[in-house]
Write a structure and sequence with these properties.
heterodimer, A: alpha+beta, six-stranded antiparallel β-sheet, three-stranded antiparallel β-sheet, B: alpha+beta, Gyrase A, domain 2, Alpha-Beta Plaits, Elongation Factor Tu (Ef-tu), domain 3, six-stranded mixed β-sheet, six-stranded antiparallel β-barrel, 19 strands, 19% helix
């Protein structure tokens, strides 16, 4: 599966689709393949303030639980409640399965993220 | 299961086949094993609805033979091996003097005074040492670790009979559950046993390691038209948990006895004393402080191994296995609780990473096949 060119990525295999000072956050195709069948998502409340690298939730596959890490600092302004009801979409369509929208507190942080070429190299 | 140390992982004779099939490999009990091929859910459903093929060659085999072999087995195995006819197998436990599990195992009666024990991969050496010592007082009986002599392949699922039968002259339809026979399978001399660890009908096939790949390929070819797929340890775990079959290292270990684990039925209560029998008899008479129960989540979440169980504010036990099961589509698990709470319908809470979520005690097995 191709990684969307417009997204930014982390070494922990999250993606963020930036739009102004907000970004939708999900996990990459590589991450979902490692996890296996996703069965449950534990996501934060709207209003939660996160630091970059901080855990914002958990994703459970049949096998195991993994933590979700915030790619940037900011406030959770939206949570994808629909995805919680059909978490298997993370496997079938990982790059459309956003989990939260974070309103960035420091736009400068985006410079530390990987672009699509760097991320594709990382998981090659 | 015990995790591997720095020693290199052992490989079954089918290791290359798994890799060629694109399996995801993981360390398990000192072995490099396939955890999944197409995905745990797909593999789990294949076994419930059609069939799945498993490499379980990591399992160990220990033979006991000699003129006093039955007496030897009776001393170290908690079930009553005298009830076995030749060609029959039984589930049992290898216990410590405290009645707790060194391992769980299957006892196959090959002859009047000849038995084969099938044991868990990570315990082969420990079991062999315990067995060798435990049978000494029986006199003429010897234990031999013959694990290297066998590859073990399991075909599990409602279509297993139709898949395996064309490859063997053994009459499988008339073979009863927990019986076995020797014969040719895919032109290879082996042993076919109607056993498994999935809660489905199926067969476990012992063949020489040199021929394992040929037998695997023949089974794959025979199973294709029935939609059989290769399955890994991930599906094996979710399948056995739906069937509420204990996993050593999770649900039973050297701190738990068969009585606590609800496995009274594998104890030969009427036979002469055996390792651990005094403790088991005491526990049967007095009851145990804790009992193994099945639970189903009420709140959304999955209670996993090691999570604490609560009744109100009181910690009452621990989860030993838990998952979201692909077939029942429920979050279920096994765990130990105070005996008074081990009643179906009782509500308990599970501390899931800092949150208390509701679950209830339910009867086991969670899944039972319709015959």
């Amino acid at each position: 599966m191709a990684y969307p060119a417009g997204f930014k990525y982390t070494k922990d295999h999250e993606w963020i689709e930036l739009s102004g000072d907000e970004g939708k956050v999900g996990i990459t195709d590589f991450a979902q393949a490692q996890l296996g069948d996703v069965v449950y998502l534990e996501l934060p409340e709207v209003g939660t303030v996160l630091k970059a690298g901080q855990t914002f939730g958990n994703i459970e596959s049949v096998k195991a639980v993994s933590e979700l890490y915030a790619p940037v600092s900011g406030e959770v302004v939206e949570v994808n409640a629909a995805l919680k009801e059909k978490p298997e979409a993370v496997n079938s369509d990982p790059h459309a399965s956003w989990m939260v929208v974070i309103k960035l507190s420091d736009l400068g942080e985006t410079g530390t993220l990987l672009d699509v070429t760097q991320y594709s190299d990382l998981v090659k | 299961m015990d995790q591997a140390t720095d020693t290199p992982l052992k490989k079954t004779p089918l290791n290359a086949r798994h890799r060629a099939l694109g399996a995801r490999m993981v360390p398990f009990g000192g072995w490099d094993m396939p955890v999944e091929y197409s995905g745990i859910t797909a593999e789990h459903l294949a076994v419930r609805e059609r069939a799945g093929l498993f490499d379980v060659s990591h399992m160990g085999q220990i033979e006991i033979a000699g003129s006093n072999a039955l007496d030897a087995v009776q001393r170290i195995s908690c079930n009553d091996a005298s009830k076995l006819q030749i060609g029959q197998a039984q589930y049992s436990g290898l216990l410590t003097p405290a009645g707790t599990f060194v391992d769980d195992l299957l006892v196959y009666r090959l002859g009047p005074q000849h038995f084969m024990l099938v044991v868990n991969a990570s315990h082969i050496e420990t079991d062999f040492a315990v067995i060798s010592e435990g049978i000494t007082p029986a006199g003429d009986a010897v234990a031999v670790n013959v694990s290297a002599r066998y590859a073990l392949i399991a075909v599990q699922g409602p279509k297993a009979l139709e898949i395996v039968q064309p490859l063997t002259g053994i009459d499988l339809a008339s073979m009863k559950y927990y019986w076995f026979a020797h014969g040719e399978i895919a032109h290879v001399r082996g042993t076919v046993s109607r056993t498994g660890y999935t809660g489905e009908d199926g067969f476990e096939i012992f063949v020489p390691p040199q021929q394992a790949d040929a037998v695997w390929l023949a089974l794959m070819a025979s199973g294709e038209q029935f939609g059989m797929i290769p399955c890994g340890l991930g599906a094996r775990d979710t399948l056995r948990l739906e069937a509420a079959m204990s996993l050593h290292g999770n649900d039973i270990d050297d701190t738990r006895t068969p009585v606590e684990a609800g496995l009274d039925w594998i104890v030969g209560w009427k036979k002469d004393s055996f390792v651990g029998s005094d403790v088991l008899k005491q526990q049967k008479a007095d009851g145990t402080a804790q009992k193994l129960i099945g639970f189903e989540m009420i709140d959304r979440g999955i209670g996993r191994q090691g999570y604490t169980l609560y009744s109100g504010d009181e910690a009452v036990g621990v989860v030993t296995s838990g998952t979201q099961t692909p077939y029942l589509k429920k979050a279920i698990g096994l765990g130990y609780v105070s005996a008074a709470l081990a009643v179906p319908g009782t509500e308990i809470d599970i501390d899931i990473r800092g949150r208390r979520l509701k679950a209830k005690v339910v009867p086991t097995p969670f899944y039972k096949r319709t015959k």
